[in-house]
Design goal:
Shape of chain B: elongated
CATH topology of the largest domain in chain B: Rossmann fold
CATH class of the largest domain in chain B: Alpha Beta
Strand order of the largest sheet of chain B: 6-7-8-3-9-10
Number of strands of chain A: 0
Order of helices and strands of chain B: EEEHEEHEHHHEHEHEEHEHEEHEHH
Shape of chain A: globular
Mean pLDDT of chain B: 89
Helix content of chain B: 25-40%
Order of helices and strands of chain A: HHHHHHHHHH
Number of helices of chain A: 10
Radius of gyration of chain A: 19 Å
Largest sheet of chain A: none
Number of strands of chain B: 14
Helix content of chain A: over 70%
Structural class of chain B: alpha/beta
Largest sheet of chain B: 6 strands, mixed
Oligomer: heterodimer
Radius of gyration of chain B: 24 Å
Distance between the termini of chain A: 27 Å
Mean pLDDT of chain A: 92
CATH superfamily of the largest domain in chain B: P-loop containing nucleotide triphosphate hydrolases
Strand content of chain B: 25-35%
Chain lengths: 256, 321
C-alpha cells in the first residue's frame, strides 16, 4: 500500500496559507471591509426595520449572512486563484511532479481555503461585535455551516481553477455563477418575504442552507430547520470532495 | 542495473499530433545520458511523461524496476526534473521555494543541503530575495536546485543551461559531474552538442517522435562518426571523369579551396594513405592537408537529415579555422 505523504500535504497546506497571508491586505482586510461597507449601507437604508416573521432587526439579521458570504467567496477565491495562477504561470507542474495523491492535494487545498474563510469571518465579526447584539447561541452550528460552506466553495474553486485556462475563465465563473448564487441565497432577505415561486427557487440553492444554518447559530431563528439542512450540506460537501478527488486523480485539464 | 526503462512509449496529443512513436530506451544506472533531437523532436514530451505532467498514450516506463504508473509516488520521490519553462511562485524567496519543494516530496527541509545547493549554484547571496527579483539565469539555476533538493536518484535536465553564461555553465556541469560520480543517473537534453559529447557517456537521438539511435557515446563516435581528409589547393580542383572514378570510394566533395575525402569510420592506417595518394595522382601535391573527425554535432545533423542546412563542409570548416 502506498504510504501517505502527510508532510507533503502539510507543506502544500502551509504554502497555500502563507500565500494568502503574504497579501493579507487583498485577501483578508479587503473582503472584511467590503462586507462592512454593505452593512453600513443597509444599516442606513433599512433603519430600525424588523425582518418579517423574525423577532430581529435587519442590521442584526444581516451580519451573520454577510460574514458567511465573505467566507464563501474567499474560500472560492483561495483555491481558484492559486490554481489559475499556477496554470497561467506554469507553476502547476511542480504540484503534478510531487509525490502527492489526489486526496492529499485536495485535502491541503480545502484546508487552506477553510483557514482563509475563517480568518476573514473572524476579522469581520471581531470588528462588528461591539456594535451589534449578536451571540454565539449555537457554536456547533456556526462552525459546522462555516466549515462545510468553506469546503464546498473551496472545492468549487479548485474545480473552476482546473477547468480554467486563463484568468478570464475564472472571472466568468465568479461573476456569473458564484456571485448570483451567494447574493440570491438569503444573505440580504428572509425567503419568507419572497413569492412562493422564488421561495422554491431559493430552496434549490445549496448556498441558501449554508447561510440560513450559519445565521441560525447566531440568532436562534431562520427560514429552515438547521438540523434538517445538515443532510443537504453534508451531501454537497461529500459530492464536492468526490468530484475534486476524481478530477485531480485523472489530471482533468491539468495533464495533456 | 537499468535506472530507467522505456518500452514502446507513444504520445498522440488531442490535436492529433504524434509527438512520440514507439520509443524504447534503457538508461543504465549511474550513466550521464544525452537525449538529443531537433526542436519538436519529442524530447520535452518524453520528459513530461516521466515527470507525470503529460499522459502517455501507450507504452510503459519503469524506474529502478518500479512501474511509473503503478508506483507513481515511489518513482516520483526518486526523480528530480528541471523543466524547460522557468516558472516560480512569485510570493516566495529561493530558500522558501526549496524548503517547500523538499516538503512536497515528503522530506523534512535539510537546510544544510539547501545552503549547499544555493552556494554551488551561486544563489546564496540572493536566497532572501523574492523570486521575481532574480535574473533569468538565476531562476534557471534555482530550477536546478529545486530538482536536486530532495536528493533524487535520477535527475532529468531539460535544457538546463539555456540563458546561463559560459562560466556558470561550466561550474554547473562540474557540479553535475560530481553528482553523477556519486551515483546519480542524469538524463540531459541540450542543444549544446559539444557539452553533451564531453559530459555524457550514452546518447540517444530522436527526431519527429522516433528513436534514431541509442548507444554508448564512445560506440556511437566509433561506429557512426566518420573521418575526412581535406586537401588544400588554393582553388577548386577540376574533377575529371578519371579522377571521379579513382576517388569514388572516398565520396569526394569539392570546395572553392580544395577537396574533401571521406575516410570512413576508422582514422589513420591505409585508408588515409590510399586517399592521399589518389588525390596526389589526380591533382598533384596539395599546398596543405589535414584530417578532421566528425563530432557529435555532425553525426546528429547527419542522422536527423539536417546536413543540407549546414553552411560549410568539412574542408571549409578547417580552411576557415
Amino acid at each position: 500500500m502506498r504510504p501517505i505523504n502527510a508532510l507533503g500535504a502539510w507543506t502544500l497546506f502551509t504554502r497555500e496559507v502563507r500565500r494568502f497571508l503574504k497579501v493579507k491586505m487583498q485577501t483578508i482586510v479587503t473582503p472584511a471591509l467590503t462586507a462592512m461597507l454593505y452593512l453600513i449601507i443597509f444599516r442606513y437604508a433599512m433603519g430600525e426595520r424588523q425582518v418579517p416573521g423574525m423577532a430581529v432587526d435587519y442590521f442584526t439579521f444581516l451580519v451573520p449572512g454577510l460574514a458567511m458570504m465573505a467566507m464563501l467567496q474567499n474560500a472560492f477565491a483561495n483555491t481558484s486563484s492559486s490554481m489559475i495562477m499556477g496554470k497561467v504561470m506554469g507553476m502547476h507542474i511542480y504540484l503534478l511532479m510531487a509525490p502527492l495523491s489526489a486526496i492529499e492535494v485536495v485535502a491541503a487545498f480545502l484546508a487552506a481555503a477553510v483557514v482563509r474563510a475563517l480568518v476573514v469571518a473572524c476579522v469581520f465579526l471581531a470588528v462588528l461585535f461591539p456594535f451589534v447584539d449578536l451571540q454565539l447561541l449555537h457554536l456547533g452550528l456556526i462552525l459546522f455551516y462555516g466549515i462545510c460552506g468553506s469546503i464546498i466553495m473551496g472545492g468549487l474553486g479548485l474545480i473552476a481553477g482546473m477547468w480554467s485556462k486563463e484568468f478570464d475563465n475564472i472571472a466568468m465563473v465568479t461573476n456569473f455563477v458564484i456571485l448570483p448564487l451567494t447574493f440570491l441565497s438569503g444573505v440580504f432577505y428572509s425567503v419568507k418575504q419572497l413569492p412562493e415561486l422564488w421561495q422554491q427557487i431559493n430552496h434549490a440553492n445549496p448556498f441558501f442552507y449554508l447561510i440560513d444554518g450559519f445565521r441560525y447559530g447566531f440568532l436562534g431563528t431562520g427560514d429552515t430547520d438547521p438540523y434538517a439542512s445538515m443532510l443537504v450540506v453534508m451531501t454537497t460537501v461529500l459530492l464536492t470532495i468526490l468530484a475534486c478527488w476524481q478530477l485531480w486523480r485523472i489530471g482533468w485539464r491539468m495533464k495533456e | 542495473m537499468t535506472a530507467l526503462a522505456i518500452n514502446g512509449l507513444s504520445k498522440v496529443y488531442d490535436n492529433g499530433n504524434q509527438a512520440l512513436s514507439d520509443i524504447s530506451l534503457q538508461i543504465p544506472q549511474g550513466s550521464f545520458y544525452a537525449l538529443l533531437g531537433p526542436n519538436g523532436a519529442g524530447k520535452s514530451t518524453l520528459i513530461n511523461i516521466l515527470a507525470d505532467t503529460v499522459l502517455a498514450s501507450r507504452g510503459a516506463v519503469s524506474l529502478f524496476g518500479h512501474d511509473l504508473l503503478a508506483e507513481r509516488s515511489w518513482c516520483k520521490r526518486r526523480i528530480g526534473v528541471v523543466p524547460q519553462e522557468v516558472a516560480f511562485d512569485p510570493f516566495f524567496t529561493p530558500r522558501e521555494v526549496l524548503a517547500f519543494t523538499s516538503g512536497l516530496f515528503g522530506c523534512k527541509p535539510d537546510f544544510d543541503w539547501i545552503d549547499e545547493l544555493l552556494t554551488r549554484l551561486e544563489l546564496i547571496d540572493h536566497s532572501g530575495k523574492n523570486t521575481r527579483q532574480l535574473s533569468g539565469g538565476m531562476r534557471r539555476r534555482l530550477l536546478v536546485a529545486q530538482a536536486l533538493v530532495h536528493k533524487p536518484k535520477l535527475v532529468i535536465l531539460d535544457e538546463p543551461t539555456a540563458g546561463v553564461d559560459v562560466e556558470l555553465r561550466k561550474r554547473l556541469w562540474d557540479f553535475m559531474r560530481e553528482l553523477n560520480a556519486a551515483g546519480t543517473t542524469i538524463l540531459l537534453t541540450t542543444h549544446y552538442l559539444d557539452e553533451a559529447e564531453e559530459l555524457c557517456d550514452h546518447v540517444a537521438i530522436i527526431d519527429r517522435g522516433k528513436l534514431l539511435t541509442a548507444r554508448p557515446m564512445g560506440e556511437m563516435m566509433r561506429e557512426i562518426a566518420s573521418s575526412y581528409l581535406w586537401l588544400h589547393y588554393g582553388k577548386a580542383p577540376v574533377l575529371t571523369d578519371a579522377a571521379s572514378e579513382q576517388l569514388a570510394a572516398f565520396e569526394p566533395r569539392l570546395s572553392e579551396h580544395g577537396i574533401c575525402l571521406k575516410l570512413g569510420k576508422q582514422e589513420g592506417g591505409s585508408t588515409f594513405h590510399q586517399a592521399y595518394q589518389a588525390a596526389v595522382t589526380c591533382f598533384g601535391a596539395p599546398l596543405d592537408a589535414g584530417m578532421r573527425r566528425e563530432k557529435l554535432e555532425d553525426v546528429f545533423l547527419r542522422l536527423t537529415g539536417k546536413q543540407a542546412s549546414r553552411k560549410t563542409d568539412a574542408g571549409d570548416d578547417h580552411a576557415s579555422d
